[in-house]
C-alpha cells in the first residue's frame, strides 16, 4: 500500500457515466473531450447507476473502479448547510466520491459497492450560490474557532479536491472565486499533494487542511494517498503560494503503539515547517468513528486495516444524526486519549492552536 500512485495510476477513466444534461455545460464538454478515449454511458441520474453501485461484485473491484470509472452529473441542491466545526458552512459539493481509498472514509457509506469520483459540471452555479449566500451573510461580527474574521465555506465534504483538480478546472474556479469575496474563505481537507494547485493564486482566501497521521498507520489505512512526508513538506510550499494551511489530524486511530507514532509525527512536522508556516498553523483533531456497513464492505477488499479500525473491545455504538449505526471509542476513554494526544502535541508544537478536537 506504500508509495503514492502517479496521477494516471490514480485516475485513468476507461468508462464515463454521464447524465444527458452534462452536455449542456462547457465544463462537461471539456471533461468528455479530455478523456476522449473513454467509453461513454448515458445514465438518467449520477446517483442511480445500478450496474456500478448495486453490484456486490464491485466491492472486490473497489480500487480498479476508482481508477477506471468517472461519473459526470449536475449538482441539484445548491443550499449551504451550517457546520461550525471544520467550517461555518458546507457549500454544495463540486464532486462526490474519490479516487483514493481510505478505509475509514465516510463518503461511500450510502453509496453501495463502488465510490469513484462523480464530478459536477455546473460549478458555475455552485459558485453563484456561494456568492449569493456570502453577500446575504455579510461580515462576520465576532471571531469563532473556525476563523477570526472570515466566514469559512467547506468545499470538499464529499471528496478530495486535490484529486478532482486532475479531472477539470472546477477547483481552480472555486479558488479564484474566493479571491474577491471579502468576508468569505474557501476550505478543504486533502490527502493528496497536487502541485498544480500552487499556481492557483489563492491570495490567502483558501484554506487547505492537510490530513496528517503517523506514517505507519497511513500506509495501512490511507490507501492511494500521498505519503506522509510529502504532505508535511508540501505545507511550506502551499503557504508560500498564498494558501492558509492547517493540519487535520484525522482520524486518530488508537492502538497499542500509538503514543510513539504520534510523538514522532509531531516532531517531524516541527522539524519540517518554516517559521512562516508555523506562524499561521492551526489544527483540528478528530478521533476515529467507523461504521458496521463500511466494515463489512472493507472486509472484502482490505481486511488488514480492519484489525485497527474495527475494535469492539474499545469502541461503542453511537447512532448518528441521520440514523446510521456508527461506532466510536468508548466515551470516558475517548476523552482521556484525546487529552493525551493534545498533550503530546502541545509539548512539541506549542505554536499550533487547536481549532477543535473531538
Ligand atoms: S481522501 Fe478523503 S474522500 Fe478520498 S477516500 Fe480518503 S477520506 Fe475519502
Describe the structure.
The protein is an alpha/beta fold. It has one domain: pyruvate-formate lyase- activating enzyme, CATH 3.80.30. The protein is built from 14 helices and 18 strands. The chain has helices spanning 7-10, 26-34, 50-53, 62-68, 123-137, 161-164, 170-179, 215-221, 228-240, 258-272, 275-280, 292-299, 303-309, 331-348, and strands at residues 15-18, 39-42, 69-73, 81-82, 89-90, 95-96, 101-102, 117-120, 151-154, 184-190, 206-212, 222-223, 244-252, 282-287, 289-291, 315-319, 325-329, 353-357. The chain has an eight-stranded mixed beta sheet. It has a five-stranded mixed beta sheet with strand order 2-1-3-8-6. It starts with 6 loop residues before the first helix and ends with a strand. The protein binds iron/sulfur cluster (SF4). Iron/sulfur cluster binds next to strand 7.
Blueprint (SSEs and pairs):
Elements: H1 7-10, E1 15-18, H2 26-34, E2 39-42, H3 50-53, H4 62-68, E3 69-73, E4 81-82, E5 89-90, E6 95-96, E7 101-102, E8 117-120, H5 123-137, E9 151-154, H6 161-164, H7 170-179, E10 184-190, E11 206-212, H8 215-221, E12 222-223, H9 228-240, E13 244-252, H10 258-272, H11 275-280, E14 282-287, E15 289-291, H12 292-299, H13 303-309, E16 315-319, E17 325-329, H14 331-348, E18 353-357
Parallel strand pairs: 1-2, 1-3, 3-8, 5-9, 9-10, 10-11, 11-13, 13-14, 14-18
Antiparallel strand pairs: 4-5, 6-8, 7-12, 15-17, 16-17
Helix pairs in contact: 5-7, 10-14
Bound molecules: iron/sulfur cluster.
Amino acid at each position: 500500500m506504500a508509495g503514492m500512485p502517479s496521477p494516471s495510476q490514480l485516475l485513468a477513466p476507461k468508462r464515463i457515466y454521464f447524465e444527458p444534461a452534462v452536455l449542456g455545460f462547457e465544463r462537461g464538454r471539456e471533461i468528455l473531450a479530455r478523456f476522449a478515449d473513454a467509453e461513454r454511458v448515458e445514465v438518467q441520474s449520477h446517483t442511480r447507476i445500478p450496474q456500478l453501485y448495486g453490484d456486490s461484485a464491485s466491492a472486490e473491484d473497489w480500487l480498479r473502479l476508482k481508477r477506471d470509472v468517472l461519473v459526470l452529473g449536475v449538482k441539484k441542491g445548491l443550499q449551504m448547510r451550517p457546520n461550525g466545526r471544520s467550517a461555518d458552512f458546507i457549500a454544495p459539493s463540486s464532486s462526490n466520491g474519490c479516487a483514493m481509498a481510505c478505509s475509514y472514509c465516510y463518503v461511500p457509506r450510502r453509496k453501495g459497492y463502488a465510490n469513484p469520483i462523480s464530478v459536477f459540471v455546473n460549478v458555475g452555479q455552485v459558485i453563484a450560490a456561494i456568492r449569493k449566500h456570502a453577500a446575504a451573510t455579510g461580515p462576520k461580527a465576532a471571531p469563532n474557532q473556525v476563523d477570526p474574521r472570515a466566514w469559512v465555506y467547506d468545499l470538499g465534504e464529499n471528496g478530495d479536491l486535490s484529486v478532482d483538480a486532475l479531472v477539470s478546472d472546477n477547483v481552480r474556479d472555486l479558488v479564484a472565486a474566493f479571491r474577491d469575496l471579502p468576508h468569505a474563505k474557501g476550505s478543504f481537507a486533502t490527502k493528496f499533494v497536487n502541485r498544480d494547485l500552487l499556481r492557483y493564486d489563492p491570495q490567502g482566501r483558501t484554506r487547505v487542511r492537510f490530513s496528517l497521521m503517523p506514517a505507519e498507520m497511513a500506509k495501512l489505512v490511507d490507501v492511494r494517498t500521498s505519503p506522509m512526508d510529502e504532505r508535511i513538506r508540501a505545507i511550506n510550499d502551499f503557504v508560500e503560494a498564498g494558501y492558509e494551511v492547517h493540519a487535520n489530524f484525522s482520524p486518530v486511530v488508537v492502538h497499542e503503539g500509538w503514543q510513539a507514532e504520534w510523538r514522532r509525527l509531531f516532531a517531524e512536522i516541527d522539524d519540517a515547517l518554516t517559521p512562516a508556516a508555523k506562524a499561521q498553523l492551526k489544527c483540528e483533531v478528530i478521533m476515529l468513528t467507523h461504521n458496521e456497513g463500511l466494515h463489512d464492505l472493507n472486509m472484502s477488499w482490505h481486511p488488514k486495516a480492519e484489525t485497527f479500525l474495527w475494535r469492539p473491545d474499545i469502541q461503542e455504538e453511537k447512532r448518528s444524526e441521520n440514523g446510521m449505526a456508527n461506532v466510536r471509542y468508548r466515551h470516558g476513554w475517548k476523552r482521556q486519549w484525546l487529552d493525551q494526544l493534545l498533550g503530546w502535541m502541545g509539548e512539541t508544537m506549542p505554536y499550533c492552536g487547536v481549532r477543535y478536537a473531538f
